[in-house]
Write a structure and sequence with these properties.
The complex is a heterodimer.
Chain A lengths: L1 H15 L2 H21 L1 H8 L15 H24 L4 H6 L1 H7 L4 H34 L5 H28 L3 H21 L11 H11 L4 H31 L1
Chain B lengths: L1 H6 L2 H24 L7 H10 L3 H10 L4
Helix pairs in contact in B: 2-3, 2-4, 3-4
The chains are: A mainly alpha, B mainly alpha.
Chain lengths: 258, 67
């Protein structure tokens, strides 16, 4: 099947440029850096010194749910940056160097070309998220207290939808522009803009994808999945699919115009 | 200082060090095998080795020339 061939080509390419190694490792580092550094904060402060004798610093004891949010916070900032930077050239770069013309000159359907790239990226991102958050879960259980595997898996699944949206935004801009730098910039700008708009119209945009982490925190604390969380996830998926369809149409128009 | 080194729980810190080591080693192997990079190779060699943690990542994102 054509789609499988394209998908397999992407996956082997990720092996060749070592993405299968470094992206999961970076996600692990991002997910565990806050749990570990917060745990050692008292020692770090002590060793840095400079505090007068008898200073007592009361550091809050973090609940496991709060620590999960710290890990997600790192993934939301630096993790999203990594996803954006590693995906900025996936189509744009090929269009620039002419590889995509070589591929698309054959009877390859545009939708196969784009969805295969999208699926391959998602496989990489979801695998990295899974490994990273499981590492974080391991540390939380050692350092902060018990958190059930069930709830961390739910966190991974719901948060994965948010990263799916990030990948979809990147794929969409990949089809519009040939310069990877512009793709990365616009992807980041779009995500920042979305969060600003969500904050301004917070009373209307209750199910904005940017609220996903907020509802996730609720879920970890209360242990029950709210309907807001489910609807936000559904909205996120719909927007992702919409972007994917827009990307297919955009690439078709662009390539036919050439 | 000695005290602090003793109080560190190595079961917690070792995995982080291992991950950093793997990143550096994989980046260096990739660098030696690469035919060309964006910018001089010796520059990337030092970035990977000396810039803590993000050096290898910067190399993977920006250093590899795509073709």
């Amino acid at each position: 099947m054509q789609w499988m061939a394209l998908f397999r080509k992407e996956i082997t390419e990720y092996w060749r440029n070592k993405k299968w190694i470094w992206v999961p490792l970076v996600f692990i580092l991002l997910a565990i850096i806050d749990p570990v550094s917060n745990y050692y904060l008292p020692q770090i402060l002590e060793s840095v010194g400079g505090l007068p004798d008898g200073t007592v610093i009361e550091l809050p004891d973090f609940a496991p749910a709060e620590v999960v949010m710290m890990s997600l916070g790192q993934l939301s900032s630096l993790g999203v940056l990594v996803i954006t930077l590693m995906s900025m050239a996936t189509i744009a770069g090929e269009r620039r160097s002419g590889v995509s013309e070589l591929i698309l000159v054959k009877p390859v359907a545009y939708r196969n070309y784009i969805t295969a790239k999208w699926a391959a990226l998602l496989a990489l991102v979801w695998a990295s998220l899974l490994i990273g958050m499981l590492a974080s879960w391991y540390y939380i259980n050692i350092l902060y207290g018990e958190l059930s595997l069930h709830s961390i898996l739910l966190v991974i699944i719901f948060y994965g939808f948010w990263l799916t949206l990030v990948v979809s935004v990147s794929i969409f801009y990949n089809t519009l522009f040939k310069t990877p730098g512009i793709v990365a910039f616009l992807t980041i700008a779009t995500i920042i803009l979305m969060s600003i708009v969500t904050q301004i119209f917070s009373h209307v945009l209750v199910w904005s994808p940017n609220n996903l982490t907020m509802y996730l925190m609720e879920m970890v604390q209360t242990g029950s999945i709210s309907s807001d969380l489910v609807w936000t996830a559904i909205v996120t998926i719909i927007i992702s699919i919409g972007l994917l369809i827009a990307a297919i149409i955009a690439l078709k128009k662009k390539e036919l115009a050439n | 200082m000695q005290e602090i080194i003793e109080t560190i729980n190595w079961a917690i810190v070792t995995p982080i060090l291992i991950i950093q080591a793997i990143l550096i080693i994989v980046a260096l192997i990739d660098l030696t095998k690469a035919e060309s990079t964006n910018g001089p190779k010796w520059m990337w060699f030092f970035i990977i080795l000396l810039v803590n943690t993000i050096g290898p990542i910067i190399y993977f994102i920006f250093g590899r020339s795509r073709d």
